[in-house]
Amino acid sequence: MAVNQFQTQQHQNLQIHRLPQSKFIDAVRWLPPFAAFDKFIVLSLFDPTSSSSTIELHSLDFPDSANPNPILSPLSTFSSPSLSRTSFLKTSQSLIAFSTFSGSLDFLSPNYSSPDEVSLDSLPSLQEKGFHVGPISCIDVLERDCVSVGEDGRVNLVGFGDGKASYRRVFDSDGLVSYSAVKWASPMEFATGGLGCSLQWWDQRRKPGEPALQFKGKWSQKTASGVVHSIDIHPSRKHTCMAGGSSGTVFGWDLRWPQQPIVLSGVGIGERPSNPISESEVWEVQFDCHLQSSNITSMSSSMMPVMMCSEEGILAVLEPGAEPFELLEEPCAINSFDINKQNYSDVICSLEWESLAILSRS
Fold first, then answer.
1. What is this structure's pTM?
2. Nearest to 41 by CA among 24, 22, 55
3. pLDDT score recorded for residue 274
4. What is the DSSP string of 246-289?
């Protein structure tokens, strides 16, 4: 009960705003701002009527502190007749990258003329045969470097040079392994995840063509298999990963003990099931730097709280040794969310029923 009281105090000033949209939201991300008080949001939208996709940049304003209803103002839009539906979206200070279900990878560069004039300049894309076969499951960007993984079992590193985008194949399973998540840890290291709730750690300084470490999930008899949908790397301890996947599973992976996962929720992985806040697919996980741990004496206290969203419409904060704290419960799936890295109190979510949810914490 003390844990619940501690968590409640940290969330007691939570404000939630819902903004209906006219199209389906495939993904949403914060974009690093031009100035300290700017807030920019990138949306990947899909119109089922015309089967067209667009990438839109919006500014977010709270004009009245007495009645803080947010205003979302469009700044720039990118569209193309050949643009396939977005499978994943990532942003950095100088790059917006989005992959598609057709296997292409596109890049945009934000051009900051002023806070009210931010355009999206198109950069060279990767659409060549052999890059990926079929949908690209996940991408991640680190400044202007990108890593991509796909259902085809390919892991590619993408960079820019001589006015074009090029890639280098890190691994190809020839379809025997399917990847669904990837996350940079450093300019030389990244983690991947996929079928079987497996995780792999890749170090480009090691022997090429194989991961430096692997974790294979041990599933209970009730659950035959599972998939890792999302990975995040601890911001100050790159040896610590968090993964979310099937059956409400959220678990930590510490490279120092690579076969001893720290299970926060789920019914599948680990020797004993924990009480899950959700039993459906966990679509995204991110470490939550806004919160202080309420269990600092725990053996796993290096694992800071983590936020997750699920197919059941749950947005919640989890941490080892504490009860889950539910921030949002919707009647539809929460497909993606993002925590503002410039202000950890701000969170934005995409709801399956064509809406955005904006959460402000204090």
1. 0.89
2. 55
3. 53
4. GGG-EEEEETTSTT--EEEE-SSBSSS----S-SS-EEEEEE-T
Classify strands 136-142 and 117-126 as parallel, antiparallel or unpaired.
unpaired
Angstrom distance (rounded) from CA 120 to CA 96? 9
Choose among 213, 323, 195: nearest CA to 258.
213
Structure tokens at 258: 């690579």
Say if CB 305 and CB 288 are below 8 A apart.
yes
| Backbone phi, psi, residue 269, to 5° | -90, 150
**Residue 38 near residue 115 (C-beta atoms within 8 A):** yes
Q: Which amino acid is residue 20, in one-letter code?
A: P
**Tokens at residue 350, please?**
């995409």
| Eight-state DSSP code of residue 332 | S
Written as one letter, the residue type at 148 is S
The pLDDT of 215-233, averaged and rounded, is 76
Res 189: pLDDT: 95
Summarised one tens digit per residue, pLDDT across range 106-147 is 999 998 877 678 889 999 899 888 899 999 999 999 988 999
Backbone angles phi and psi of 135, in degrees to 5: -65, 145
CA distance 347 to 249: 22
